[in-house]
């Protein structure tokens, strides 16, 4: 059935991370009993569901998605006591990373067919918008295939193909929620129009900023973000009294448990990371309180949160959550009985209390086993209290 475009602008996100972490075996259905206050707004975020070569071949996944984990997450989310306003899919939804667009087109076509099938994904019938944005697997190519300076480099045709297909596909489903991003040239020096790869989305008093963390500025650089465009967005939000919260999200994190690699491979590139984090903490440049509540990312195949960071010599209190545990091969640091695949639910209570709930299911051996069970509640974080009447 045709899907409505993503025009609803009602959502909410995350504020500042504090402590309070508790493990648990609570099911999705049981989680309705944990909320002390009614939920006013909620949303789901996770990334990195693509398989590796062995996993795709073993499971005959045409999309290269970890189908069992993806569909189980969709089903779990659909059973939540309150449906989220959005489900954000934070990149690496397919394996791709091949020159040109043949592999990307084939895999995205199968992925869209899977994700928009109401018989497989109950969120479709319930009208919950899916918002997908790019990771390195959608936009880059490996060194051996692309004559790259580093391990990966930009795949130019993919930068145009992604927005075209994800907005206008056979399922008539628009996975892109904005088009006001940076265009070719400008202060960020982009080689092409990226207005639907990075963009902002205003929902009531909350601004969401989606970033392409592999913006194309030359043939080699990876891990780049459009800092000048981001600065304009954040400074405008700081001046706008109608905006209370800003949430920035992108595929690559500012910090990662993954170490080593080329600049921009594991994280946002070091030449920009410090300035990026400084901007999140002090958008106006005058020391006034930032409206940015968190940076949300994936890329590292794990789940983690960091309440305070020091990046490129810049220390601050804007937290980072990495939710890259959607179903891709788990990191070496994300193994054992405490590791899990799943998704993150963020809720804002009627009293303004904000929580992040991490749901997950055990990672089997091999990781691409296609039998799954419903996710259980693994951790709950109280992120802060933002009273509805606060200025």
UniProtKB/TrEMBL annotation:
Q: Per its UniProt entry, which superkingdom is the organism in? A: Bacteria
Stretches assigned to the Calcineurin-like phosphoesterase domain: 70-301
Task: Name the Pfam families on file.
Answer: Metallophos (PF00149)
Molecular function (GO) terms for this protein are: hydrolase activity
Q: What is this protein called?
A: Calcineurin-like phosphoesterase domain-containing protein
Species in which this protein is naturally found: Methylogaea oryzae
């Amino acid at each position: 059935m045709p899907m409505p475009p993503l025009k609803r602008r009602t959502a909410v996100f995350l504020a500042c991370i504090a402590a309070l972490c508790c493990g648990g075996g609570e099911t999705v259905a049981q989680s309705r009993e944990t909320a002390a206050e009614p939920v006013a707004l909620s949303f789901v975020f996770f990334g990195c569901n693509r398989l590796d070569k062995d996993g795709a071949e073993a499971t005959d996944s045409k999309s290269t998605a970890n189908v069992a984990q993806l569909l189980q997450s969709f089903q779990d989310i659909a059973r939540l006591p309150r449906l989220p306003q959005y489900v954000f899919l934070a990149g690496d939804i397919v394996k791709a990373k091949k020159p040109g667009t043949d592999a990307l087109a084939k895999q995205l076509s199968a992925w869209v067919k899977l994700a928009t099938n109401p018989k497989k994904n109950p969120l479709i019938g319930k009208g919950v918008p899916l918002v997908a944005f790019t990771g390195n697997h959608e936009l880059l190519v490996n060194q051996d295939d692309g004559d790259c300076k580093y391990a990966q480099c930009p795949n130019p045709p993919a930068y145009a193909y992604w927005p075209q297909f994800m907005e206008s596909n056979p399922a008539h489903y628009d996975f892109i929620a904005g088009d006001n991003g940076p265009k070719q040239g400008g202060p960020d020096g982009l080689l092409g129009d990226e207005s639907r790869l990075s963009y902002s989305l205003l929902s009531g008093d909350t601004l969401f900023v989606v970033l392409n963390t592999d913006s194309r500025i030359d043939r080699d650089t990876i891990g780049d973000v459009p800092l000048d465009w981001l600065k304009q967005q954040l400074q405008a939000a700081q001046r706008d009294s109608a905006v209370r919260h800003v949430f920035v999200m992108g595929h690559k994190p500012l910090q990662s448990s993954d170490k080593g690699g080329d600049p921009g491979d594991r994280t946002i590139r070091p030449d920009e990371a410090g300035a990026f984090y400084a901007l999140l903490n002090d958008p106006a440049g005058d020391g006034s309180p930032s409206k940015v509540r968190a940076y949300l990312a994936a890329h590292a195949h794990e789940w983690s949160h960091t309440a305070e960071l020091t990046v490129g010599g810049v220390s601050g209190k804007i937290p980072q959550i990495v939710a890259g545990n959607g179903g891709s091969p788990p990191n070496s640091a994300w193994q054992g009985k405490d590791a899990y695949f799943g998704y993150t639910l963020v809720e804002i209570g009627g009293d303004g209390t904000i929580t992040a709930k991490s749901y997950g299911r055990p990672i089997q051996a091999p990781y691409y086993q296609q039998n799954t069970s419903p996710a259980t509640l693994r951790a709950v974080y109280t992120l802060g209290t933002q009273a509805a009447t606060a200025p």
